[in-house]
Design a protein that fits this description.
homodimer, mainly alpha, Tetracycline Repressor, domain 2, 10 helices, about 0% strand, DNA-binding, transcription regulation (chains A, B), DNA-binding (chains A, B), HTH-type_TetR-like_transc_reg (chains A, B), Homeodomain-like_sf (chains A, B), transcription (chains A, B)
DNA sequence: GTCTATACCTTGATAGAC
DNA sequence: GTCTATCAAGGTATAGAC
């Protein structure tokens, strides 16, 4: 079954991207992890960038699914909190693909990928609506530009603090999630 | 002059690390930027990792210098704010070397580099003292583990939000610094 | 569509003359 | 210590048989 094989490929790419990042991940590794020859990979995906883009699209779709399933009865602030919590948990599970934030061949490929851009836009719209509502009701600081809030939320998806705290060995995953949620929404200053 | 040449090398490495990261930076580029042959580089530094480590040590020393010069009359909270502000400014100037947070050959080299570890420890001690004082006086949330606060501060040095906001083109560098400082210390929630 | 084998290139690092 | 020239390894991608 073609779809099942491709899902297995993308799943492994996803994991490897989370583990080592785009540049350190090799196509040989992916092929070995899936258990097929490298040349077979290239029958499904035309390039390494294409592989990574597929993994990113898969993750974005999962994110969108989660957002769509968030309890509409929650306050806008709690919806945002739920979104960030989900992101942090995915990252702690080693399932959040890490891509270079700097310019690279991958960024060009992503910017040319309609699936990626569309899903990213949908997510941004949904989060943007929540942000606007939260600022209107005064639960999120209205002085912050909505775009800055959005970027700050996205950045939690690749926050190195999670890995640092995890390797310190002093906190459970649940504690780490709550700590980062707290610093994200409440800040370091005392309230 | 040997020292001057090595300073020129490390300066270029620093800039290239900030631009493209460790993996995307090539030794050929460094040699070209400095204006010497690649083989000559290897007379000064024994490996690419060694080059990057030297750049990191240089940046850590600059950070330590800055911390030592912070006005002792400031409150502990304002000292921490000054430290983060400095980090953000360096990053916006494209001078903050970006290293892979994931495991790699570079991490091993850094962990074997006494200069790096010593300076990092000194900085952490200085910041740690300020954090403790700030928590004691109640200006920083005392419920947060000091280590989590420290990591959160460090993480601002590679915060992708800066680059996102910069490329949005809607804010000056000064505004971006104040925005990120605000989200870091005050959080997204309204106060 | 899977495989083996390989082309082609880039990269980190070195040899050896000066 | 600088250069030119080169090596060895490992990477992406492809050819071509089945």
């Amino acid at each position: 079954m073609l779809a099942a094989r491709e899902e297995a490929i993308v799943q492994n790419v996803n994991r490897l991207l989370a583990e080592k990042g785009f540049e350190a991940m090799t196509v040989d590794e992916v092929a070995a992890a899936v258990g097929i020859a490298k040349a077979s990979l290239y029958k499904h995906f035309t390039s390494k960038e294409d592989l990574a883009a597929a993994a990113m699209v898969r993750m974005l779709r999962r994110a969108r699914q989660f957002l769509d399933a968030v309890d509409p009865a929650l306050s806008p602030l709690d919806k945002l909190r739920a979104a960030v919590r989900w992101t942090l948990q995915v990252q702690l599970e080693g399932q959040m693909p890490a891509l270079p934030s700097q310019n690279s061949s991958l960024r060009a490929a992503l910017m040319a990928n309609r699936d990626y851009l569309d899903t990213l836009m949908e997510i941004s719209d949904e989060l943007g609506g929540w942000i606007e509502a939260a600022q209107k009701e005064g639960s999120v600081n209205p002085k912050l530009p909505a775009l800055a809030v959005l970027y700050t939320l996205y950045a939690r998806g690749c926050d190195p603090v999670l890995g640092f705290l995890q390797s310190s060995g002093q906190h459970s995953d649940e504690e780490i999630v709550e700590l980062v949620l707290s610093t994200c929404f409440d800040g370091l200053r005392n309230r």
